[in-house]
Task: inverse folding
């Protein structure tokens, strides 16, 4: 008579596999894609633009360059990403109407009356080899600068945070601090 080979009990094997599956599903982290939330401008027929003078005075442009080594060049000076927000805020607000910062033009704004509004535009250009994380960090700082200016104005004028205001008041503040960030096509060589 041949010796019988012992069997491994299979009844609890399905339970163990199910428990392992649940364990790995619960403990695994999923990478969330990071991106930029942007409202794109409406399309304009190029023939309509031919009659308009679209030149921007050089002092009204805040130039931000990011090279392939992820170095940040702001208005011709090397800068740390941590300082970008304050520099962008100063540029867009131009609180003392400095000659080296953007011009201002009078504008009638609801809830504020006649206000001097900056003509400033932020111009961002990066290299094709710029790391995506650096690009996002720069974008986030620029957007945060404008959001902080809006929030400070909302608290000063209405005593509330910008996001707590009704739509009409938010629109008025957006007229004073519009988000004018222009992105140039990335360059393939060092900037």
Result:
């Amino acid at each position: 008579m041949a010796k019988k080979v012992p069997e491994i009990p299979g009844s609890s094997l399905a339970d163990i596999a199910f428990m392992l599956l649940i364990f790995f599903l619960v403990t695994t982290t999923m990478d969330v894609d990071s991106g930029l939330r942007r409202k794109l401008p409406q399309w304009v027929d190029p023939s309509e633009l031919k009659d308009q003078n679209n030149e921007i005075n050089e002092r009204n442009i805040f130039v931000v360059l990011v090279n392939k080594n992820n170095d940040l060049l702001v208005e011709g000076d090397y800068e740390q990403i941590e300082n970008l927000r304050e520099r962008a805020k100063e540029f867009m607000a131009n609180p003392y109407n400095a000659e080296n910062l953007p011009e201002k033009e009078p504008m009638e704004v609801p809830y504020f009356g006649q206000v001097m509004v900056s003509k400033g535009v932020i111009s961002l250009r990066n290299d094709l080899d710029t790391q995506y994380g650096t690009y996002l960090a720069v974008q986030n700082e620029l957007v945060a600068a404008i959001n902080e200016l809006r929030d400070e104005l909302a608290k000063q004028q209405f005593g509330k945070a910008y996001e707590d205001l009704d739509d009409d008041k938010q629109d008025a503040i957006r007229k004073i601090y519009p988000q004018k960030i222009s992105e140039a096509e990335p360059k393939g060589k060092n900037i």
Summary: Residues 56-183 form one domain. The chain is about 35% helix and 15% strand. The two ends are 85 Å apart (CA to CA). The helical segments are 13-27, 46-49, 81-93, 132-158, 167-176.
